[in-house]
Amino acid sequence: MILVCDIGNSFIKSAIFKNDKVTNYIVKKDFSAILKQIQDKNINRVVISSVVPAKLKLLLKELTSFNSIRPVVINKNLNFNLSIKYVTSQTLGIDRICSAEGALYLANTANNLRRLSNSDFILAIDCGTATTINIVEYPNSFLGGLIAPGLDMMFSALNAQTAQLPLLTAKSYRTFIGDSTKTSIASGVINATVGMIHESITLLKPRPKNIFITGGNAEYIIPHLKIDAKYEKALVLYGIKAIYDKNNQIT
Q1: d(Cα 69, Cα 199) in Å, to the nearest integer?
Q2: Which of 98, 140, 225, 248 has the fewest CB atoms found within 10 Å of its own CB?
Q3: How many domains, the chain?
Q4: Closest C-alpha among 126, 116, 174 to residue 148
Q5: How far is residue 95's CA from residue 111's CA, in Å, rounded to a whole number?
Q6: How far is the C-alpha of 131 from the C-alpha of 127, rounded, in Å?
Q7: pLDDT score at 7
Protein backbone atom coordinates (compact mmCIF):
# COMPACT_ATOMS: atom_id res chain seq x y z
CA MET A 1 0.00 0.00 0.00
CA ILE A 2 1.04 3.58 -0.65
CA LEU A 3 0.96 6.31 1.97
CA VAL A 4 0.74 9.82 0.52
CA CYS A 5 1.75 12.89 2.50
CA ASP A 6 1.22 16.60 1.89
CA ILE A 7 3.39 18.87 4.07
CA GLY A 8 1.73 22.29 4.07
CA ASN A 9 2.55 25.53 5.83
CA SER A 10 0.09 24.90 8.64
CA PHE A 11 -0.78 21.20 8.62
CA ILE A 12 0.46 17.81 7.45
CA LYS A 13 -2.13 15.71 5.63
CA SER A 14 -1.73 12.03 4.90
CA ALA A 15 -3.75 9.10 3.62
CA ILE A 16 -3.34 5.51 2.52
CA PHE A 17 -4.40 4.62 -1.02
CA LYS A 18 -6.13 1.29 -1.56
CA ASN A 19 -7.15 0.61 -5.16
CA ASP A 20 -6.89 4.33 -5.91
CA LYS A 21 -9.26 5.20 -3.07
CA VAL A 22 -8.34 7.32 -0.06
CA THR A 23 -8.45 5.64 3.35
CA ASN A 24 -7.08 6.59 6.76
CA TYR A 25 -7.12 10.32 5.99
CA ILE A 26 -5.42 12.25 8.82
CA VAL A 27 -4.55 15.90 9.45
CA LYS A 28 -1.88 16.69 12.04
CA LYS A 29 0.70 19.33 12.84
CA ASP A 30 3.44 16.70 13.26
CA PHE A 31 4.53 13.38 11.74
CA SER A 32 3.24 11.11 14.52
CA ALA A 33 0.29 9.77 12.52
CA ILE A 34 2.45 9.03 9.48
CA LEU A 35 5.03 7.10 11.47
CA LYS A 36 2.33 5.14 13.31
CA GLN A 37 0.58 4.16 10.09
CA ILE A 38 3.85 2.93 8.61
CA GLN A 39 4.34 0.78 11.70
CA ASP A 40 0.76 -0.53 11.83
CA LYS A 41 -0.11 -0.93 8.14
CA ASN A 42 1.47 -2.78 5.27
CA ILE A 43 3.05 0.33 3.75
CA ASN A 44 5.64 -0.26 1.04
CA ARG A 45 5.96 3.25 -0.37
CA VAL A 46 5.70 6.79 1.01
CA VAL A 47 5.11 9.60 -1.49
CA ILE A 48 5.62 13.15 -0.23
CA SER A 49 4.91 16.67 -1.43
CA SER A 50 6.15 19.58 0.66
CA VAL A 51 6.25 23.38 0.59
CA VAL A 52 8.27 23.50 3.82
CA PRO A 53 11.85 22.27 3.19
CA ALA A 54 12.75 22.03 6.89
CA LYS A 55 9.78 19.76 7.65
CA LEU A 56 10.52 17.62 4.59
CA LYS A 57 14.10 17.14 5.76
CA LEU A 58 12.87 16.11 9.20
CA LEU A 59 10.40 13.57 7.81
CA LEU A 60 12.99 12.02 5.50
CA LYS A 61 15.29 11.64 8.51
CA GLU A 62 12.49 9.91 10.46
CA LEU A 63 11.84 7.54 7.56
CA THR A 64 15.43 6.28 7.57
CA SER A 65 14.49 4.12 10.56
CA PHE A 66 12.21 2.04 8.28
CA ASN A 67 14.48 -0.16 6.18
CA SER A 68 11.68 -1.25 3.85
CA ILE A 69 10.60 2.29 2.93
CA ARG A 70 12.09 4.21 0.01
CA PRO A 71 10.37 7.60 0.04
CA VAL A 72 9.50 9.41 -3.17
CA VAL A 73 9.49 13.21 -3.09
CA ILE A 74 7.34 14.99 -5.67
CA ASN A 75 9.37 17.68 -7.42
CA LYS A 76 9.26 19.68 -10.63
CA ASN A 77 11.76 17.41 -12.37
CA LEU A 78 9.16 14.65 -12.59
CA ASN A 79 6.72 14.05 -15.42
CA PHE A 80 3.25 15.51 -14.89
CA ASN A 81 -0.15 14.67 -16.32
CA LEU A 82 -0.47 18.42 -16.78
CA SER A 83 1.31 20.49 -19.39
CA ILE A 84 2.62 23.47 -17.40
CA LYS A 85 2.02 26.78 -19.24
CA TYR A 86 3.08 28.94 -16.28
CA VAL A 87 5.60 31.60 -17.40
CA THR A 88 7.66 31.44 -14.19
CA SER A 89 7.46 27.68 -13.73
CA GLN A 90 10.52 27.76 -11.46
CA THR A 91 8.48 29.65 -8.84
CA LEU A 92 5.31 27.59 -9.20
CA GLY A 93 4.56 25.89 -5.89
CA ILE A 94 4.43 22.11 -5.97
CA ASP A 95 1.27 22.29 -3.86
CA ARG A 96 -0.51 24.17 -6.64
CA ILE A 97 0.58 21.60 -9.20
CA CYS A 98 -0.63 18.76 -6.97
CA SER A 99 -3.96 20.50 -6.36
CA ALA A 100 -4.51 20.95 -10.09
CA GLU A 101 -3.38 17.37 -10.78
CA GLY A 102 -5.94 16.16 -8.24
CA ALA A 103 -8.70 18.14 -9.92
CA LEU A 104 -7.73 16.80 -13.35
CA TYR A 105 -7.68 13.24 -12.04
CA LEU A 106 -11.10 13.54 -10.40
CA ALA A 107 -12.59 15.29 -13.43
CA ASN A 108 -11.43 12.41 -15.60
CA THR A 109 -12.68 9.74 -13.23
CA ALA A 110 -15.57 7.64 -14.45
CA ASN A 111 -19.02 8.69 -13.22
CA ASN A 112 -17.68 12.09 -12.26
CA LEU A 113 -19.42 15.43 -12.57
CA ARG A 114 -19.79 16.13 -16.29
CA ARG A 115 -18.42 15.15 -19.68
CA LEU A 116 -15.48 17.39 -20.62
CA SER A 117 -14.66 18.95 -23.97
CA ASN A 118 -11.50 20.64 -25.19
CA SER A 119 -11.12 24.18 -23.79
CA ASP A 120 -13.38 23.47 -20.81
CA PHE A 121 -11.91 24.70 -17.55
CA ILE A 122 -11.26 22.70 -14.40
CA LEU A 123 -10.74 24.67 -11.19
CA ALA A 124 -8.89 23.60 -8.07
CA ILE A 125 -9.58 26.01 -5.20
CA ASP A 126 -7.47 25.58 -2.07
CA CYS A 127 -8.55 27.52 1.01
CA GLY A 128 -5.51 27.06 3.23
CA THR A 129 -2.81 29.37 4.58
CA ALA A 130 -3.18 31.14 1.24
CA THR A 131 -6.24 30.91 -0.97
CA THR A 132 -5.31 29.72 -4.44
CA ILE A 133 -7.41 29.21 -7.54
CA ASN A 134 -5.64 26.97 -10.02
CA ILE A 135 -6.98 26.79 -13.56
CA VAL A 136 -6.63 23.86 -15.94
CA GLU A 137 -7.81 24.07 -19.54
CA TYR A 138 -8.93 20.65 -20.70
CA PRO A 139 -7.46 18.30 -21.67
CA ASN A 140 -4.37 19.03 -19.57
CA SER A 141 -3.02 22.61 -19.72
CA PHE A 142 -2.17 24.24 -16.40
CA LEU A 143 -2.63 27.94 -17.17
CA GLY A 144 -2.00 29.46 -13.74
CA GLY A 145 -4.51 31.21 -11.53
CA LEU A 146 -4.77 33.43 -8.49
CA ILE A 147 -3.00 33.60 -5.13
CA ALA A 148 -4.48 35.61 -2.27
CA PRO A 149 -4.05 35.71 1.51
CA GLY A 150 -5.97 33.00 3.32
CA LEU A 151 -8.69 33.84 5.82
CA ASP A 152 -6.44 33.63 8.87
CA MET A 153 -3.77 35.72 7.15
CA MET A 154 -6.29 38.46 6.37
CA PHE A 155 -7.62 38.48 9.92
CA SER A 156 -4.06 38.64 11.28
CA ALA A 157 -3.07 41.46 8.91
CA LEU A 158 -6.02 43.62 9.93
CA ASN A 159 -5.13 43.12 13.58
CA ALA A 160 -1.38 43.64 13.16
CA GLN A 161 -1.51 46.61 10.79
CA THR A 162 -4.08 48.66 12.69
CA ALA A 163 -4.16 50.11 16.18
CA GLN A 164 -7.65 49.13 17.24
CA LEU A 165 -9.03 46.27 15.17
CA PRO A 166 -9.34 42.98 17.08
CA LEU A 167 -8.00 39.61 16.01
CA LEU A 168 -10.89 37.44 14.81
CA THR A 169 -11.47 34.12 13.08
CA ALA A 170 -13.85 32.92 10.39
CA LYS A 171 -16.20 31.72 13.12
CA SER A 172 -17.02 35.40 13.80
CA TYR A 173 -19.00 35.70 10.55
CA ARG A 174 -22.72 36.43 10.97
CA THR A 175 -24.23 38.34 8.03
CA PHE A 176 -23.16 40.16 4.88
CA ILE A 177 -23.81 43.57 6.44
CA GLY A 178 -21.78 43.68 9.62
CA ASP A 179 -23.60 45.52 12.42
CA SER A 180 -20.51 45.81 14.62
CA THR A 181 -16.78 46.19 14.06
CA LYS A 182 -16.24 42.47 14.62
CA THR A 183 -18.98 41.33 12.27
CA SER A 184 -17.89 43.91 9.68
CA ILE A 185 -14.34 42.56 9.71
CA ALA A 186 -15.60 39.00 9.43
CA SER A 187 -17.87 39.89 6.52
CA GLY A 188 -15.06 41.72 4.73
CA VAL A 189 -12.67 38.80 4.99
CA ILE A 190 -15.16 36.07 4.09
CA ASN A 191 -16.76 37.95 1.23
CA ALA A 192 -13.42 39.06 -0.21
CA THR A 193 -12.64 35.38 -0.75
CA VAL A 194 -16.14 34.47 -1.92
CA GLY A 195 -16.13 37.40 -4.33
CA MET A 196 -12.75 36.42 -5.76
CA ILE A 197 -14.00 32.91 -6.46
CA HIS A 198 -17.24 34.10 -8.04
CA GLU A 199 -15.46 36.68 -10.21
CA SER A 200 -12.91 34.13 -11.39
CA ILE A 201 -15.69 31.83 -12.55
CA THR A 202 -17.59 34.69 -14.21
CA LEU A 203 -14.55 35.81 -16.22
CA LEU A 204 -13.78 32.35 -17.60
CA LYS A 205 -15.54 31.45 -20.85
CA PRO A 206 -16.96 28.88 -21.07
CA ARG A 207 -18.02 28.94 -17.46
CA PRO A 208 -16.25 26.15 -15.51
CA LYS A 209 -18.43 23.18 -14.65
CA ASN A 210 -15.83 21.08 -12.85
CA ILE A 211 -14.87 22.99 -9.72
CA PHE A 212 -13.14 21.35 -6.76
CA ILE A 213 -12.52 23.02 -3.43
CA THR A 214 -10.32 21.91 -0.56
CA GLY A 215 -8.39 23.25 2.43
CA GLY A 216 -8.93 23.85 6.11
CA ASN A 217 -10.95 27.03 5.57
CA ALA A 218 -13.19 25.63 2.85
CA GLU A 219 -15.95 24.95 5.37
CA TYR A 220 -16.28 28.70 6.01
CA ILE A 221 -16.45 29.58 2.32
CA ILE A 222 -18.62 26.85 0.82
CA PRO A 223 -21.92 27.94 2.48
CA HIS A 224 -21.64 31.33 0.74
CA LEU A 225 -20.78 30.12 -2.74
CA LYS A 226 -23.45 30.33 -5.42
CA ILE A 227 -21.77 27.74 -7.62
CA ASP A 228 -21.74 23.97 -7.92
CA ALA A 229 -18.38 23.11 -6.33
CA LYS A 230 -17.38 19.66 -5.14
CA TYR A 231 -15.59 19.58 -1.79
CA GLU A 232 -12.70 17.10 -1.67
CA LYS A 233 -10.59 17.11 1.48
CA ALA A 234 -7.92 14.92 -0.13
CA LEU A 235 -7.66 16.87 -3.41
CA VAL A 236 -3.91 17.48 -3.11
CA LEU A 237 -3.30 13.87 -2.06
CA TYR A 238 -5.10 12.63 -5.18
CA GLY A 239 -2.81 14.86 -7.20
CA ILE A 240 0.33 13.53 -5.51
CA LYS A 241 -0.80 9.98 -6.20
CA ALA A 242 -1.58 10.84 -9.84
CA ILE A 243 1.92 12.26 -10.34
CA TYR A 244 3.48 9.23 -8.67
CA ASP A 245 1.48 6.88 -10.92
CA LYS A 246 2.52 8.82 -14.02
CA ASN A 247 6.21 8.42 -13.17
CA ASN A 248 5.89 4.87 -11.85
CA GLN A 249 4.55 3.75 -15.22
CA ILE A 250 7.70 4.85 -17.03
CA THR A 251 10.35 3.73 -14.55
Answers
A1: 45
A2: 248
A3: 2
A4: 126
A5: 26
A6: 5
A7: 97
Domain boundary among 26, 48, 73: 73
pLDDT at position 112, please?
52
Last residue of a domain, one of 73, 91, 109: 73
**Together in a domain, 96 and 174:** yes
In a domain, 247, yes or no: no
Task: State which residues form the domain around 65.
Answer: 2-73
Other CB atoms within a 10 A radius of the CB of residue 241 amount to: 24
Q: Name the stretches of the chain with pLDDT < 70.
A: 110-114, 250-251
Distance in Å from the first CA to the final CA of the chain? 18
User: How many whole angstroms separate alpha carbon 192 and alpha carbon 201?
Assistant: 14
In this structure, the answer to whether residues 27 and 138 fall within a common structural domain is no
Collapse the DSSP code of 208 into the 3-class scheme (helix H, G, I; strand E, B; otherwise coil) and give the result. coil
